[in-house]
Structure formats: structure tokens, C-alpha cells
UniProtKB/TrEMBL annotation:
It comes from Mesorhizobium album. The lineage of its organism: Bacteria, Pseudomonadati, Pseudomonadota, Alphaproteobacteria, Hyphomicrobiales. The keyword Transcription regulation does not apply. PANTHER family: AT30094P, SPHINGOSINE-1-PHOSPHATE PHOSPHOHYDROLASE. This is Phosphatase PAP2 family protein. Gene3D superfamilies: Phosphatidic acid phosphatase type 2/haloperoxidase.
Length: 189
């Protein structure tokens, strides 16, 4: 399994260095893709259509994001995977990271956001977030920081977190109403 993972990772990363424009784009996506996704989620707060549902989904996306990253921290207690650039699989385009390779926090965060929107029936923004998440994931492998399985593992963690939040955080529940009320008082005044 490792050999397939290394081959796929090397194949995606082997394009790195062939185009300065593509290199710059992928480095940029990797660096600010997740913060831009978070801003895009936050910007949905003022969307007029079905405000109550929309705001519930925004909270669910935020909780999914945070829960997914928390799961990653638990995984890191048991898994310490060497980065593909340290294993000689990839050519690194950015500075080395002190973080273990598995799972990818970028993939977790991006997938959690997309999954939260899709699981809550917000198909159109969910598909846009999914496209952005896939771009973030590809960029992580392209620039040499992660194996393909690192981003797939991170994506699964994010999706699992979104599913758990979907099951436990109900629209219209007391906690949902309380948090939305506090945020409305803060942001809509």
C-alpha cells in the first residue's frame, strides 16, 4: 500500500517545478486556501435566504472544522508519519514543517466545511466548497508536504467530524438558538 501511495504522491509532485506560475498558484492555495474558506463561510452569515437554516449550517461548519482538527490531534498521539520530502518521495517547494505528515490538517479543515454544507442540504455552496477543498488537497501533495493518503485521511477525519456534528447538533435546539442569538446580537447590530 505504501508503494502505491508513494507513486501517486511522486506523480502529483513531479509536475512541481515545470511551471513557475503553477508553482506559485499551488503554494498560494496551500498557504491561504483554508483561511479563505473560513472567510467564505463567515461571509455567508449575511445571506438572506432561509436565514435560520443558513446560520445553523455556518455553526455546524465551524464545529465540524474544530472537531476535525481535534480528532487530528488525537491521531497524532499515536501516529507519527515522516513527511514525503524527508523520505525522498517529493521535492519540497516551501519551508520544512515540524508537523507530522498524517493526517493533513488542511484537508481536514477544507473537507469538514464542504461536508457540513452538503450534509445540511446546501448543495450549491457545498459543491463550491468541495471544489475548493479538492484544490487545497491537491496543492498539499503538489508542493511536497503530504502523501496522497495524508490528504485522504485528513478528508475522512473532516467528513467524520461533519457527520458527527450533523447527528448531534440539531437545528432549533436550545444550544443552536442560544449561539445564533448571541452572534446575531454581536454581528447584526
Amino acid at each position: 500500500m505504501y508503494e502505491l501511495d508513494a507513486k501517486l504522491t511522486h506523480a502529483l509532485n513531479s509536475v512541481a517545478g515545470t511551471s513557475q506560475l503553477l508553482n506559485s498558484l499551488m503554494i498560494w492555495v496551500s498557504a491561504i486556501g483554508v483561511p479563505l474558506l473560513v472567510l467564505a463561510v463567515a461571509g455567508q452569515w449575511w445571506r438572506r435566504a432561509d436565514r435560520q437554516h443558513n446560520r445553523h449550517v455556518l455553526l455546524a461548519a465551524g464545529f465540524s472544522f474544530l472537531l476535525g482538527l481535534a480528532f487530528n490531534q488525537l491521531i497524532l498521539l499515536f501516529v507519527h508519519r515522516m513527511s514525503p520530502y524527508d523520505a525522498g518521495v517529493t521535492h519540497l517547494l516551501i519551508a520544512r514543517s515540524a508537523n507530522p505528515s498524517f493526517p493533513s490538517d488542511h484537508a481536514t479543515a477544507a473537507a469538514a466545511i464542504a461536508a457540513a454544507f452538503l450534509l445540511h442540504g446546501m448543495r450549491k455552496p457545498g459543491l463550491w466548497f468541495l471544489a475548493a477543498a479538492l484544490l487545497v488537497m491537491v496543492s498539499c501533495v503538489y508542493i511536497g508536504t503530504h502523501y496522497v493518503s495524508d490528504v485522504l485521511g485528513g478528508a475522512l477525519t473532516g467528513i467524520f467530524a461533519a457527520m458527527l456534528v450533523r447527528a448531534l447538533f440539531r437545528k432549533g435546539a436550545r444550544a443552536d438558538q442560544w449561539i445564533i442569538g448571541r452572534l446575531e446580537a454581536l454581528l447584526d447590530s
